[in-house]
Sequence to fold (228 residues):
Amino acid sequence: GAGVSQTPSNKVTEKGKYVELRCDPISGHTALYWYRQSLGQGPEFLIYFQGTGAADDSGLPNDRFFAVRPEGSVSTLKIQRTERGDSAVYLCASSLGGSITDTQYFGPGTRLTVL
Amino acid sequence: AQSVTQLGSHVSVSEGALVLLRCNYSSSVPPYLFWYVQYPNQGLQLLLKYTSAATLVKGINGFEAEFKKSETSFHLTKPSAHMSDAAEYFCAVNRAGSYQLTFGKGTKLSVIP
Fold:
């Protein structure tokens, strides 16, 4: 079956602009996660959804970052007033959701470049 | 808070040699531990995970890792390196009750023919 997909694969924007990054999880997975990976670093947790609700958003760096998952499937990460420091690869993952030891399956990521 | 330290940002081994990638964790409660691999331009793929069952965990592609509580370690090994093992490897931890994964900075493995 299809894995986690993310669009776009690359996004270049100018400082101050608004961007949306999309994630399509594996069908049937109720848990969805967003991580951010800066150059030379491991992924850092941003937010976790269980169904439609954000169960843990403690990793969002500030109020410019927001994510939604209105129907419990596709999720969108929204970044307002982008800054150069937001440049990174944004990773989405999904898991079955019943257990914290469920495997998280990662998408290929969206590379965001803020000029 | 949980954290993971991966010793060595870059490891080189000869084809056929032992692969040893080091991971030490800190956690105030018993952790769950994971190793992921990232090939160029691909997503992270789970190699193996420790979830408090057997301390020696076998994964895909001939990799295994041993959970050693006394040493707070979860090192990844493979007896014989293959050219296709060249990739970046990440150790990750989550604590009981948390869905968050905390990743190390990664170790890039190069395999020399």
